[in-house]
Input
Amino acid sequence: MPRTLPEHPEFASAAERTVWEHLVAQLPEGAVLLAGQRVTADGAEVEADLTVLWPGFGIAVLEVKGGRVSLRDGQWHQSDSTGSHRLKRSPIDQAQSAKHHLVAYLNATSSRPIGRAVHLAVLPYTELPAGWDPPEAPRSLVLDGTDLPQLAGRIVHALNRQSRLGYAPLDAQQCAHAVTMLRRTHRAIENHQLLAREIADEGNALTREQERAIAMLRFQHRAQIIGGAGSGKTHLAMIKARTLAREGFRTALLCYSRGLARHFQLLATTWPPEERPAYVGLFHDLPVTWGAETEQQFDGDAVTYYEEHLPRRLADLATAQEELELFDAIVVDEAQDFADLWWDGLLPCLRDPEHGVLFVFTDEHQSVFDREGRAPITLNPFPLDDNLRNTRAIARTFAPLTPLAQTARMAEGDPVRYVESTAQDAVATADDMVEQLMDEGWEPGQIALLTTRSRHPVQKE
Output
């Protein structure tokens, strides 16, 4: 039996499955049979229904058409139980296009060009008439139902005709290289184009569900929303801040993380002016905006400046502000990073500290800093139970880190691979894995290597 990739393929038609089964029964060990091989080049994507890589002979690309196929007045037609229709492209043309793209791709990845390669149309439910020999589809390139018992032999015959043109047969090394490169191509197309698009579309649809959920809280003046990583907290925090601003509330959208604050600021510039909060950014930048000392002006250490001085100064400065400068509503994301003293400084920034709008988005299990703080909200928190950002495989892997059980709503995704390593060898092992992923077809920009502090030498650089 040949090597089959994938091992258990899904077929678009019974015709493809029939041809596949005949080839599996006829091809020898050492040959490789691929189903649904896609190749993308120059903005065009082609798919070969079946591809045979046969050391000692060459490469055959097969376009399979079910039903009864005929050629009338230069037009290809296909008839089946649903009726008859004209084919937009001839099966020979499709096979030839797929072959050219596939061979061009392989030749671009190797110093040894592919020699013998043929394209064939296989019509398993059609019997061609005697004397069939149209110029665009000679009988040697079109195989019908009567050819199925000797399908492998017909492929050999077509490949051997290439020897007349001086093309060399495929050898075992070329075959192995072709398998590595073609499966890499299939992975790249499947995951980075189709699967990524599917996951993004599903995530957008599910996010709209959560937007409706946050809309149900529109009559709440104060609410705490909790959820684990991937539950959409940050997106909902932005939606809430935009909604409040659009409704006429003077709104502040705050967080502690500098990277997240910059993300908020960049996105806010794309929103309509009437939906932009009055303040978007870091909690600690707000008192500086109102006149507090900068870190360079402060007579003390950085920890005291950020943890204690600025929160206290914020409270003092808020009481000195004109009412127009204060806020009707405050939205805080990643609130688990806020200490009690920070909340004491933030509440006076509301025109109505007791009843002003305060929405807090938090995940206690994502707390990065050793702070104890509790948002001044007495209502029970509203949980976000769905994971909208991660594939199910990733969601299961990190489930122990979430504050409550989550329902993974996305696609299954690729399985998570665990790699054992000692602590001493962890950096070298991680680098080896990066190299392995690139060998599998992932681009450098699609790989993230996460380390702690400056453990990795490149991070130090």
About this structure: Residues 172-215 form the longest helix (44 residues). The chain is about 35% helix and 20% strand. The domain at 3-189 is CATH 3.40.1350 (Trna Endonuclease; Chain: A, domain 1). The longest strand covers residues 44-54.
